[in-house]
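Open question from group meeting: does this chain pack into something compact, or does most of it stay loose? Before anyone orders reagents, we agreed to write out a predicted structure and look at it together. Recording both the input and the output here so the notebook holds the full record.
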Amino acid sequence: MDLGIEGRKAIVCAASEGLGRACAWSLAMNGVDVVITGRTPEKLASAKAEIEQASGRTVVTVAGDITTEAGRAAALAACPEPDILVNNAGGPPPGDFRDWTRDDWIKAIDANMLTPIELIKATVDGMMDRSFGRIVNITSSAVKAPIDVLGLSNGARAGLTGFVAGVARKTVAKNVTINGLLPGPFDTARLRGTTKAVSEKTGRPFEEVFEERKKLNPAQRYGEPFEFGEYCAFLCSAQAGYITGQNLLIDGGNYPGTL
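Structure tokens returned:
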């Protein structure tokens, strides 16, 4: 299927590995020139080389923290008029809300709510002027089914979701859509890190915990980042102009509800 986005330009945040990298890969494979951000230059260089070799498209790397004003400015300097924006940032750590300070909350809100809003604010008017724009916010399945130990993430990402619900209905008339992608358990470094933490806390072998958590999913497996990237690419396609303000789960059926 030709997604109709060849030659478009994209910023993909936190794309040196994991789901962000998969999104950048899929966009590039569909003819998009991508700017990828990340905090580790070596990982960015690896992602750039791999994506360019596979796709033949130009990949520009911007090393820095996208949750800071300087990091956002650097990304926008590298791609001042993006057609596609994929917002992504690492989630805050788990814990007990009784232990979180105001600073913990502000850091979570800065990363997972205000950073995407700032990038939307910086790019959406230009997209509307050009009559094409696709904004995808990578959030979490916890937006639909909150996870008690991820209260910082639940709150910050739900705040972003509520904000987007209003804005997305104002931009779509100009062919600019804003949607959320809500990943469930995907086989990424973050998932393996949380699994390792459970393993160390309980004294159980890593592989035992990893396999047990996998079997809890109706699909009996973890998602592959490639699958997520392809879903993202479709949401960024010319054909997806009638989808906006939606929060789309990719979780192997883990969420048990009908809505």
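Observations to bring back to the group:
Residues 55 and 131 are 26 Å apart (CA to CA).
The mean pLDDT is 95.
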